[in-house]
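Quick one: Cytochrome bc1 complex Rieske iron-sulfur subunit from Streptomyces marokkonensis, structure tokens please.
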Amino acid sequence: MPGRPVPSRRTVLRSAALTPVAGLGVAACSPGDDGAAPARPTAPVDLGTDGEVAKGATKLYQDQNVVVSRDDEGALKAFSTVCTHAGCPIKKLEGTKLVCPCHGSEFDARTGEVLHAPATVPLIELPVEVEQGRIVARPGT
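--- reply ---
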């Protein structure tokens, strides 16, 4: 078009090279609190023997992305350990606190509640029960 400046080849190539990097940065840091459900188990997950989680204890099953706790009366609770902020798998349990490696969100492993932002949505609770001496977590409905 006449009268309109044409960008140089260098400007076009520089813009093209920077565009994917900027896009990845935004996508990697965008919160998952937009209502989209993070990944969670889709089939029953056999976590191990019933004796692995004592009364008052919490256990992280890293490979299955599940945390299980047992209260003082013996009742089990299980939560997906996929962070509700950006979908990162949580691999760190400090006592009863889960710490996400991506942005530092913290969750109570016994209740799933958010202890520290940026996450604002609790972890997804999974139905859990003991079947034939094994702890089995099921996907949420």
